[in-house]
Amino acid sequence: MIQQWLVTVEQLSLDDAAKESLVLGRQTIAQLMNDPLLPQGFVDVQLREQFALSVLQLDQMGLALWSKFYDGAVL
Fold first, then answer.
1. To the nearest 10°, the Cα dihedral for 47, 53, 54, 59?
2. For residues 35 and 25, which has the higher predicted lDDT (pLDDT)?
């Protein structure tokens, strides 16, 4: 889901992209917090590592989007 969003985020308006990054980020944080880091045999460790990398990419994109959003906001 994260990778699909990262591929299509440029097609969204800045407002929508920033909002979606927040919602998706909250979902991934919850997922990471509930992951007990079970050993191989219980979970696909490679898939978990891939998920963690995707979360980092999402975080970087979200930070960039929110930075642009605030730069253009009238406060």
1. 150
2. 25
